[in-house]
UniProtKB/TrEMBL annotation:
Record-annotated HTH arsR-type domain positions: 2-96
Record carries keyword Transcription regulation: yes
Protein name per the record: DNA-binding transcriptional ArsR family regulator
GO molecular function, one term: DNA binding
Alphabetical list of InterPro entries matching this protein: ArsR-like_HTH (IPR011991), HTH_ArsR_DNA-bd_dom (IPR001845), Metal_resp_trans_reg (IPR051011), WH-like_DNA-bd_sf (IPR036388), WH_DNA-bd_sf (IPR036390)
Keyword entries, A-Z: DNA-binding, Transcription, Transcription regulation
Record-linked SUPFAM superfamilies: Winged helix' DNA-binding domain
Pfam families: HTH_5
Transport found in the keyword field: no
Classification via CDD domains: HTH_ARSR (cd00090)
Organism: Phyllobacterium myrsinacearum
Length: 96
C-alpha cells in the first residue's frame, strides 16, 4: 500500500491526466521528441497553451525536455509513462 504522500502524488498525476489536451500532447510525444511548435501546429493549439500544459506535465515528471540549439524537444519521461499510456489506450479500445 502506498504511503499517504505517494497516494496524494498519484491522485494529482491522475488529475493532470484527466485533461484531454494534456493526453493529446502526451500521445503526440509518445513516438518521438517534439518541439512546442510541432505540438502546437499538429494539435491545432496555441504555443502558449502547449507551453502551459508542458510546464504542468514536466512538474509531474511525465515529460522531459532536451535542448537542441534554440529549441526544446519534449518526450515522455520514461517507459513507465509510455507503457501506462499505451496500456490504457489499449484498454479503452478493448471489446467488452
Amino acid at each position: 500500500m502506498p504511503s499517504d504522500s505517494d497516494t496524494a502524488t498519484l491522485a494529482e498525476t491522475f488529475r493532470l491526466l484527466g485533461d484531454p489536451t494534456r493526453l493529446r500532447i502526451l500521445f503526440f510525444c509518445l513516438e518521438a521528441p517534439r518541439s512546442v511548435g510541432d505540438i502546437a501546429e499538429s494539435l491545432q493549439l496555441s504555443q502558449s497553451l502547449v507551453s502551459h500544459h508542458l510546464r504542468l506535465l514536466r512538474g509531474a515528471r511525465l515529460v522531459r525536455g532536451n535542448r537542441l540549439a534554440k529549441q526544446i524537444f519534449y518526450e515522455l519521461s520514461d517507459r513507465h509513462v509510455s507503457g501506462m499510456l499505451a496500456d490504457m489506450a489499449h484498454h479503452v479500445n478493448e471489446e467488452n
